[in-house]
Specification:
The protein is mainly alpha-helical and about 160 residues long. The chain folds into 2 domains: about 80 residues, Arc Repressor Mutant, subunit A (Orthogonal Bundle), CATH 1.10.10; about 70 residues, no CATH class. It contains 11 helices and 5 strands. The strands form 2 sheets. Strands 1-3-2 form a 3-stranded antiparallel sheet, with no helix packed on it. Helix 3 crosses helix 5. The C terminus is likely disordered.
Length: about 160
């Protein structure tokens, strides 16, 4: 999901449509921190021309970190991850997380692994954040291990209580 804060700005809209499309493609192929590690492969897949890559760099939407690693410096702002990160550091969120883990005895509710520490929202966090009754309801949470949490998010297979 993209926020309008960046993509509706005059600076972004003044770039060529090809550079804008390349930016969206790069965002979709980057990691959670906006890094593109298989740069040449990514450019080949999206068929980006050098002039559009240069346009992204000159406008501050892309940075070269090393020979094969690039970074999208505004990735978190563009995708909304930055806002969600802030929301996950509130007192209410930390309390909800602690209560979910304690209720489930730190045991993964999918595979039974002990010492698990991920509190997963059954209704996705981004889909329920506007409804405070759901986002901090411990009934909307479940304790998962790292492996099962990845499975829960793989292909949209969310756990429903």
């Amino acid at each position: 999901m993209f926020t309008m804060k960046i993509v509706d700005s005059d600076q972004f809209l003044n770039m060529s449509i090809e550079a804008q499309c390349a930016y969206f493609q790069l965002c979709m192929r980057s990691d959670d921190d906006g890094y593109l590690r298989s740069w040449k492969r990514t450019i080949r897949i999206i068929d980006a021309k050098e002039e559009f890559v240069s346009e992204l760099i000159s406008n501050g939407y892309l940075e070269k970190k090393s020979e094969n690693v690039y970074k999208l410096p505004l990735f978190k702002e563009t995708t909304g991850y930055g806002e969600r990160d802030k929301q996950r550091h509130t007192k209410e969120y930390k309390k909800w997380r602690k209560e979910v883990l304690k209720r489930d005895n730190y045991i993964c509710q999918m595979c039974g692994k002990p010492n698990s520490n991920i509190a997963h929202h059954k209704v996705r966090f981004r889909d329920c954040y506007d409804d405070k009754n759901i986002v901090y309801d411990i009934g909307n949470g479940v304790c998962l291990c790292k492996r099962c949490h990845k499975i829960a998010h793989g292909g949209g297979n969310y756990i429903n209580g």
